[in-house]
Amino acid sequence: RVSVWDARSGAFLRDYLGPMPYGGGTNFWLDAKDPSIVNFSGMRYQVDWVKKTAIPLAVTMRKTDANMVFMPNGHGLFAAGMRVFTHAGREYVVCNDYHMLLVLMRQGEIYVPVAAAGGNSRLVTDDGTARQIWDSDLRYHLYRNYYPESFRGHAGDNFSWTDLNGDGLVQAEEMRWAKTLSRGEKYDGRQPEWMSFWGAGIAPDWSLFYGGFCRDKTTNYRLDLQGWTPGGAPIYDITAPKLLFTTEQVAHIAGYYVNSENKLFVSYNYEGGPKGVREDQKNVLDCRDREGKLLWSVAMPKQLLQKDYHAENIAQDFTIPGVGNVLGSWLWHGNYRPYLLTSDGLYLGTLLDETLLGPAALWGESFKYYYQGTDGTPYIVNGASDALHLLAIRGLENSKRFETTLTLTEAEVQAATTARAVPAVKAPPQPLLSMGWAERAPTIDGKLDDWALNGGVALEADGGRGAQITLARDADTLYLAARVKDSTPLLNKGDDWQKLFITGDCVDLMLATDAKADPHRRAAVAGDERLLLSVFQDQPIAVLYRPVVAGAGKPVSFMAARIDEVTRLTGARVAYQRGEGFYTIEAAVSLRDLGLAATETNTLRGDVGAIFSDETGRNRVLRLYYYNKQTAMVADLTTEATLQPGAWGALQLPLGKNLLKNGNFEAPFASKSTDGWLVEIQQNGGTAQLTTDLAHSGKQSLLLQQTTPVLFTPEAMKTPKWEDFVSSANGGKGGGHVSVCQAVPVVGGKKYAFRMFVRTEDFQLEKRQPGEGRGYIALASYVFWQVPGKPGGTVSVASVRQTSADWLSFYNTQANNFGVATPYTAPEGATGAIVSFKWSTVAPDRLPKLWIDDVEFVQLAD
Q1: Does residue 504 register a pLDDT over 90?
Q2: Is 0.90 topped by the overall pTM?
């Protein structure tokens, strides 16, 4: 509180209250009898809703003794909100702290802790008395003697506490402890550590609901009320919980809530997986009775779309005539949305606006609460902009329940049964991020007319946002081009060039230059870096971030994130252009500046993405990346400045200057083999085409397939000779066959490298009679050397006969080299080479497919 006074008269003028805690107001509730009385952050205020003024009345929560262990910190994060209870004429408030639930009783103008239950988490203590705290300068560190000496030796133990003597302080004899399983142990009947991160549940009958997990189980408990002390403190015994249910999924409970009907609602963790959602989690919300019996569930959506239901927990419930009990949820990450649904599982809707501006804005890592006014009006309390925004919820008063009949026919039941029996189709692999070789350096002018953007990757998001980003290189330069769909194109008004990634539009390249680094590492290592392209004071800029640099002299702190080296690349060439609903940006950066060796051809790891601004150009609303889907956070500098190399994917580097034209098949077929890929032969149902259905990188690949089955007559099946068996296919026409080739110039005596990627479908054969193994499907790939006046010789570079759902890599392979990658040497006098794919099938009744992509034929340096 900052107060302003008249220096001459001593009269009070006004005061300023704040700042609010991170995520908005916490410890928030309104007085049920007097709506002008508001409680939050450990204070009580009288509010004039018309004049929009507030007068502080009392500090209601203040720790006055070191042994007042369970007094909430008014500035802490109490995500599940405060709930008000009464018993025997006394008023209580209950809140969730870090892995514990606290009960406070009102005594005059203040609240005093009288009971608690939870876990002394191993995550934040070492000896039981210390507590790990985070701040922006010191990061995570232990405060010694945070808890009393009686807590020593109880790291990881669950506890319950009742204030037996009514002084609000913790004495050793008032604590009950339960030894727990650690996260690495298998379940043996003991409780795991209390891990109800986003809130334990408390029922109207004062029962508590919580859970924990160990190596192979998640367990869920009810802790019943044992009685009351004469002073009004509830009594619990942590050593005697009731086990309600267990699951095999580990670490998946987000929070618990019990509504006014005594129904238990269990929310499940959703974050993780390729689309941002856990694939191992069946449901996002369960409704159970107090014995743990499942009543209904909400299924886990497949991805975090704009209005798909996800939740950290239920925050509060209220009642609407004609609808019944209504649950209000809240969401910290993901799409940030609050949702309303009835306690029997009917979806009502979602609230707030897709913006970062105004009181109804959707912010990441902001709290949301609900309450119902004395007139029955429901309200949502939105923590956007680290503030309390109180918004009335209109429209529910017009809602009504109705019933109708759903008729399901036997045919529909059978169709559904048949559909469920169909095996799930494995999704094709995502095209990887690749870096092509620039035959000619692009002009850095922002026009992108000398780029083939289809060779890059496409990003798509809600709200019409998206991007196409393409990478290329030559002997000494990396090039990047991006076309970004954005209603406020390239808007970034940030006043700090080192922090442009939190103030507006940017294009991002993440790169791991050390091919030997652990691909699963959680933290950045030497060689990991980030190249950010944006505008600063409306001029193009390139900024390079290196978190780990040996001997760095001036590291930069972004709250708790430390970056050893942040460099403005003045030597980089960057240009942009703005259009209607889009912008383009391109850059040329020295490989030396990036620490990338000019001879590097390994497949590295990296990512590309775009950051989108709000309407002001001083904040960001979306981080969108190709590989990393854990980028929902747009409200925390530490998180957004920290590299996440474990979430990056493959970045394929070129072998060198490709002699082949259209090696990634993004351009049409050619009419001559010297101009590109020529389709030589398509016979008996075998075809060659360019397809967008599947690609190793970019958008297109070469598809060779059999479009009509190869047939054999009964007489042919009895043919003893293989040659006659094959020639009888399709009425004597032979099997399906396709040949695609391209001619390139070479120099005799020089060495050449070859690489290609192949994926197949329906290749493996059944054994047919007469004779086992009749029929075959095969790809044979060759390099035919051309030597004027004499035979040049042939290299068999790839032979494929098996089905592979993943892309197979062929790199300098050839017959009789025992799998060792060996460059090819052009014969003396050679002037050209023909790279040829010859695909054949004489397999009866099969329609095999084969995809080829990213073919390179490169002359190696001497």
Answers
A1: yes
A2: no
